[in-house]
Design brief:
- The complex is a heterodimer of chains A (172) and B (99).
- Chain A contains six helices and no strands.
- Chain A is mostly helical.
- Chain A has two domains: 1-91, NADH-ubiquinone/plastoquinone oxidoreductase chain 6, subunit NuoJ (Four Helix Bundle (Hemerythrin (Met), subunit A)); 134-172.
- Chain B is mainly α and 99 residues long.
- Chain B has a domain at 26-88.
- The chains are: A mainly alpha (172), B mainly alpha (99).
- The interface between A and B is large, with 93 and 69 residues.
C-alpha cells in the first residue's frame, strides 16, 4: 500500500480517521447495554458513512444519507425505543444468552473469507482520481430513464410500507 | 486510494452487523444491526461506481436508502405491535410457531 505512487495523502488520512471512527462506533452499537446510547453510536456510523460517500465522489448520495438516515431513521429508532418503554439506563437483558459464542466465530469466519476474497481479487487496484465526477443531472437521468422500472417498484414498496405501518400500528 | 480499502471497510461493517443480528435479543437493536449491513453494502456500491466510472452504483445506493427507510418503518410498526401484545420485545420469547 505504501509503495503505490502518487497517493493522495489527505484523502488517505481522512479515510483512515473516518473508517476507524465508524468501526469503533459500529462495535459500540452491537455491544452497548443501553438502547439509546446504541442509537446515538449508530448516528456516528451513519455520519461516517456519509463522509465516505463524499470521498467516493457521490455527494448527492451523501446528502441523502444525512437527510434520510440521520434525519428520519434515527428519529424513528428513538420513537421506537420510547414507545416500547425500554429500560432507562443500562439493561442487562439485551443480548441472547451465550450469543457471543456463536456470533464471534461466525463474524470472524465471514470477515476472514471476505478479506481473503477481496485482497485476492483487488490486490492493488486503485480508484481513478482523474475521472470527472458525476453530477446530479446524470444521476437523475439514470434514475428516470434506464432504471425507471425499479423506481416505480420502489414507489410501490414505499406506498405499501406507509399503509402497512399505519395498519399495523393503529390502535383499535 | 485503493479500492480494497473501501471494500474492506464495507466487509468489516457487514461482519459487525451480522454479529449484532446474531447476538442481540432486543428487536430494535436487531433493526439497528440491519442498518449497519445496508450501509456497508452502500459503501461497496459507491466504491465500484467510482472504480468502473458507472453511475448505476449511485442509483442503486439511493434505492437501497429508500428500501431501508421503508424497512425501518414497517419493522418498528411490527415491534410496536409485538410490544402491545406481549409487553416485551425480546425476540426469543416469540415462540408461538414452535408447536
Amino acid at each position: 500500500m505504501i509503495a503505490v505512487e502518487n497517493i493522495n495523502v489527505g484523502q488517505q488520512v481522512g479515510f483512515g480517521i473516518i473508517a476507524l471512527m465508524m468501526i469503533v462506533g459500529a462495535i459500540r452499537v452491537v455491544t452497548n447495554k443501553n438502547v439509546v446510547h446504541a442509537a446515538l453510536w449508530l448516528v456516528v456510523v451513519l455520519a461516517g458513512a456519509a463522509a465516505q460517500y463524499l470521498l467516493l465522489a457521490a455527494e448527492f448520495v451523501a446528502v441523502t444519507q444525512v437527510l434520510v438516515y440521520i434525519g428520519a431513521v434515527m428519529v424513528l429508532f428513538l420513537f421506537g425505543t420510547m414507545l416500547t418503554r425500554s429500560k432507562v439506563g443500562n439493561d442487562e437483558n439485551l443480548d441472547n444468552r451465550n450469543g457471543a459464542f456463536i456470533g464471534i466465530p461466525v463474524a470472524l469466519l465471514l470477515l476472514g473469507t471476505l478479506t481473503y476474497g477481496l485482497l485476492k481479487t483487488y490486490k492493488a487496484e486503485r480508484l481513478p482520481l482523474k475521472n470527472t465526477p458525476f453530477n446530479i443531472q446524470q444521476l437523475s437521468d439514470s434514475i428516470f430513464s434506464q432504471y425507471l422500472l425499479p423506481f416505480w417498484a420502489l414507489s410501490f414498496v414505499l406506498l405499501a410500507a406507509v399503509i402497512g405501518a399505519i395498519v399495523l400500528a393503529r390502535r383499535d | 486510494m485503493l479500492i480494497s480499502e473501501f471494500l474492506l471497510l464495507g466487509a468489516v461493517l457487514f461482519c459487525i452487523g451480522v454479529y449484532g443480528v446474531i447476538v442481540r435479543k432486543n428487536a430494535v437493536l436487531v433493526l439497528m444491526s440491519i442498518e449497519l449491513i445496508l450501509n456497508s453494502v452502500n459503501i461497496n456500491l459507491l466504491a465500484f461506481s467510482l472504480k468502473y466510472n458507472d453511475i448505476s452504483g449511485q442509483t442503486f445506493a439511493l434505492y437501497i436508502i429508500a428500501v431501508a427507510a421503508a424497512e425501518v418503518g414497517v419493522g418498528l410498526a411490527l415491534v410496536l405491535l409485538i410490544y402491545r401484545n406481549k409487553r416485551n420485545i425480546s425476540l426469543d420469547e416469540l415462540s408461538e410457531m414452535k408447536g
